[in-house]
């Protein structure tokens, strides 16, 4: 079995709309931190110099949203009053949603904006595969090439409302994308709304989650390495109690 990494990193060195803060405590600093903690909490003394090389363990402190890097959006992310009842948070979503056969839709030629249902149907036809209920749909837009830059936030292909509804109508419950969002870029949506005053253009892919219980995997990577179908996606989200999203190490499993 081959394992193909489909995840983008949480990287404080890259550009983010909500900047990541990553502070690393060295093993020597970790020794002092542990010694001070033992003294304050338990009244126990241990001189850091008594440790081999004066070092204990390193420690990383990361401040980031749960929507940084590859992550899974839970139904709770889309709104508080969906038609199907109280929305589940990321720790409540069934795990069997996230270990399923996958198929890739090539939308690399769609351009910045939102692909429609006709484009999605055509992409499915090109795969030669008939999606089954609970399959995971992956949108290959090529946006991952711009990760870590402002362009990643503003230049990519999302889905419009009809395209999202079409995939959900096939029984798909998890839709993934290598773009920043499953919807069109924020500037594109806002400019279109200001021009049309049509509320249906306001994040329709996300707001479909108020009518259908489903999850998104955003900010995937390396989808170009996958065949159109014939693989399994594994993308279990981190179990953060009460959260609307959780980071995930998404991979594809292919039989040799």
Automatic annotation (TrEMBL):
Domain of life: Bacteria
Signal peptide: none
Transmembrane segments: none
Pfam families recorded: Cyclase (PF04199)
Protein name: Cyclase family protein
């Amino acid at each position: 079995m081959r394992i193909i990494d489909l995840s983008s990193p949480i990287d404080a060195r890259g550009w983010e709309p909500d900047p990541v803060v990553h502070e690393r405590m060295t093993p020597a600093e970790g020794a002092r931190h542990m010694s001070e903690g033992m003294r304050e909490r338990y009244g126990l003394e241990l001189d850091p110099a008594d440790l081999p090389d004066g070092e204990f363990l390193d420690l990383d402190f990361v401040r980031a949203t749960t929507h940084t890097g590859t992550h899974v959006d839970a139904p709770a992310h889309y709104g508080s009053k969906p038609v199907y009842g109280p929305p589940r948070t990321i720790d409540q979503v069934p795990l069997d949603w996230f270990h399923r056969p996958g198929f890739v839709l090539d939308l690399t030629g769609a351009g910045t904006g939102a692909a429609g249902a006709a484009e999605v149907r055509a992409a499915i036809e090109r795969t030669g595969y008939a999606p089954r209920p609970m399959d995971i749909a992956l949108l290959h837009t090529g946006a991952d090439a711009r990760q870590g830059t402002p362009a990643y936030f503003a230049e990519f292909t999302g889905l419009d409302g009809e395209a999202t509804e079409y995939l959900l109508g096939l029984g798909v419950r998890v839709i993934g994308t290598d773009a920043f969002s499953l919807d069109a870029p924020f500037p594109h949506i806002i400019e279109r709304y200001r021009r049309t005053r049509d509320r249906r253009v306001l994040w329709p892919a996300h707001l479909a989650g108020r009518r259908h219980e489903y999850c998104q995997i955003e900010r995937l990577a390396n989808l170009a390495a996958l065949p159109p179908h014939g693989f399994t996606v594994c993308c279990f989200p981190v179990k953060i109690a009460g959260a609307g999203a959780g980071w995930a190490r998404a991979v594809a499993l292919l039989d040799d």
